[in-house]
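Input sequence (157 aa), recorded before submission:
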Amino acid sequence: MPELILTAELVPSTSWYNNLRNVIAREDWDWIRGEVYAYYESRCAICGVGGSLHCHEVWLYDDAAHTQTLEGFVALCPWCHHIKHLGYAGILASEGKLDYRKLIAHFMKVNGCDKAAFDAHHKAAMQQWEKRSRHQWRVELGEYAAIILPQRLGIRR
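Predicted structure, token format:
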């Protein structure tokens, strides 16, 4: 199987909505997004397509300490972003809001792989998600902690 360049990054269910976007002022998030889009020259960092982009938070998970640390940001097209959040994409598809076949096709095209590789990656990602979702996670925002709105999440500074 080829090395995958587009992979799922499923957030543990016990850590859903623990993200920077939800704990900072809208103008700060808009500034970060603008900087990220400019850095990636208004193109998806993974597949290279231009147009509509999402600012994706990149997290590092320490499975022993149950700590998730914000590592940075990446500009993604909607399809690559849906792959990152594959579980949520499945929910959207079940509600008729997302064409899951197109999502799989995008994964296969970007990674140069077949459906069996997608299925294997999906299964492994879901197993990791289930394991991680058994724990509470401490969220570390590093340099971004200084701009948190204090009334929001109880995130360690």
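Checked by second reader. Residues 115-132 form the longest helix (18 residues).
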